[in-house]
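If your schedule permits, I should be very grateful for your opinion on a structural question. I have a record of one protein: its chain in single-letter code and its fold written as discrete structure tokens. Kindly check, if you would, that the fold set down in the tokens agrees with what the sequence suggests. I remain grateful for any guidance, and I place the record below:

***
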Amino acid sequence: MTEAKHTRTEMIPIDPVVILNPRARNRRKFLEVVESIRTVGLKRPISVNRMIGPDGGRSYGLACGQGRIEAFRELGRTEIPAIVRQASEEECLVMSLVENCARRMHRSVDLLQDVATLRGRGYSDRQIAEKIGASPEWVSMMATLIEKGEQRLIEAVDVGTIPISVAIEIARADDETIQQMLAEAYTEGR
């Protein structure tokens, strides 16, 4: 069957939508989304899968569109257009990851969190790489940084100060002072 037979767009209530892969949002960009929806309307529906809620009632798992649904809530709306899919929670997380990768200005730290989530759900680096269009080696390197808790190195990779391969080498140093010296040496071209 084609995907069109598995999906349809409908108005759904906002309250029973569960955000499966929540993200922190930049307030300024969020307010821009709210204003755009207020003046132009919603350009693209959210994507959800139909679920049974904890109370046994109808619920939806949000695959794509957290910013849009939060904007609708901010505007006091109670319903939102949604593409309703028949998908598992894991499939929704993968859809969310793919959408985040497709965003023009996604942050590496968001992508890292998605990779860590998928790894935690049992996906191999190769499977994750196929889903996001990266190499298994890249997935492994990024996962190493997040597992080591190297937030400052992740941020340096995110802003382009150092490449991921250099960040991995710095993270391998046991001493934080040595790590700092290596990072400074790289950024200063030494």
In short: The CA atoms of residues 7 and 40 lie 25 Å apart.
